[in-house]
């Protein structure tokens, strides 16, 4: 993992259906991205894999403190990472994510994925992820990448991930996360509404909320704006805290 001068490392955690290659659109300091089990070229994991398991795997393959940027599923895993391994997480950026999955919605989505296949779910997912304006340009590289990954992902692995999200619930533990956290909310995000992100930021002890004119895939549709927010976060997170824990 590429490290910065102070020994820390910037880590990007991707959304469901994508892989570590999605970080290529972000102009950031040296950044490492991992691929979750069942995604990209990785084989489907054992049944019952949880988001906490994904977080534990990351720690097992890295050293030193981490500034973790998580988008959607990646943000959920980042929360588990901060809770289970607080000594390893220096700061968080949580983009378009939630502290609690909806079990009924995720189970229904998993069942539909197994019935229709990954390609059969493609249009529904893209409509949740991007604005209509972006979808009118399907050949845009970021959209083409997302469409290709979603269409070709193993349907069983995708269904496994939806079910894992359905069991995700750290809402009542958010007060334990005391590292500087920036919550990025997309004003046009139909998957994670603004009120969810506002509540998430309010429950975290050291947090700030950044609003963007973006959909759920903020980092793919508006990568320059997203990267600028991450760079700003890193500066803010490095500032000394007051005795009460607040940043200037």
What's the structural blueprint in terms of helices and strands?
Blueprint: E1 9-13, E2 31-33, H1 51-60, E3 66-71, H2 73-84, E4 89-95, H3 103-120, H4 122-129, H5 132-135, H6 141-152, H7 155-166, E5 181-186, H8 194-203, E6 207-212, H9 218-221, H10 223-238
Parallel strand pairs: 1-2, 1-3, 3-4, 4-5, 5-6
Summarize the structure.
This protein has 248 residues and is of the alpha/beta class. The chain has helices at residues 51-60, 73-84, 103-120, 122-129, 132-135, 141-152, 155-166, 194-203, 218-221, 223-238, and strands at residues 9-13, 31-33, 66-71, 89-95, 181-186, 207-212. A 6-stranded parallel beta sheet has the order 2-1-3-4-5-6, sandwiched between helices.
Features:
Rossmann fold; AB_hydrolase; 6-stranded parallel sheet; hydrolase activity; alpha/beta; 248 residues; 13% strand
Distance between the termini: 30 Å
- The beta-strand count equals 6
Cross-sheet strand order for the largest sheet = 2-1-3-4-5-6
Q: Tally the helices: what do you get? A: 10
Structure description:
GO terms for molecular function: hydrolase activity. It comes from Pseudonocardia xinjiangensis. InterPro entries: AB_hydrolase, AB_hydrolase_1, AB_hydrolase_fold. Keywords: Hydrolase. The protein is α/β, with parallel strands linked by helices and 248 residues long. The chain has a domain of 163 residues: Alpha/Beta hydrolase fold, catalytic domain (Rossmann fold), CATH 3.40.50. Helices cover 43% and strands 13% of the residues. It has a six-stranded parallel β-sheet with strand order 2-1-3-4-5-6, sandwiched between helices. Strand 3, helix 2 and strand 4 form a beta-alpha-beta unit. Helix 1 crosses helix 2 and helix 3 packs antiparallel against helix 7. The radius of gyration is 17 Å and the shape is globular.
């Amino acid at each position: 993992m590429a490290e910065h001068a102070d020994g820390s490392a910037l880590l990007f955690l991707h959304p469901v259906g994508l892989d570590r290659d999605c970080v290529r659109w972000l102009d950031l300091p040296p950044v490492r991205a991992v691929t979750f089990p069942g995604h990209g070229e990785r084989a489907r994991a054992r049944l019952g894999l949880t988001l906490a398991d994904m977080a534990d795997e990351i720690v097992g393959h890295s050293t030193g403190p981490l500034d973790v940027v998580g988008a959607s599923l990646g943000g959920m895993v980042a929360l588990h990472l901060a809770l289970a391994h607080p000594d390893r997480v220096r700061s968080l950026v949580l983009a378009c994510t939630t502290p609690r999955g909806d079990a009924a919605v995720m189970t229904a989505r998993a069942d539909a994925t197994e019935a229709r296949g990954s390609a059969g779910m493609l249009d529904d997912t893209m409509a949740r992820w991007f604005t209509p304006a972006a979808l009118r340009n399907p050949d845009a590289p970021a959209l083409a990448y997302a469409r290709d990954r979603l269409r070709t992902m193993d349907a069983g692995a995708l269904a496994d991930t939806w079910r894992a999200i359905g069991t995700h619930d750290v809402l009542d533990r958010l007060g334990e996360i005391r590292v500087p956290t920036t919550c990025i909310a997309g004003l046009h995000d139909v998957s994670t509404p603004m009120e969810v992100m506002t509540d998430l930021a309010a429950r975290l002890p050291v947090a700030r909320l950044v609003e963007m004119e973006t959909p759920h895939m903020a980092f793919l549709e508006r990568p320059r704006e997203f990267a600028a927010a991450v760079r700003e976060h890193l500066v803010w997170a490095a500032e000394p805290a007051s005795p009460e824990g607040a940043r200037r």
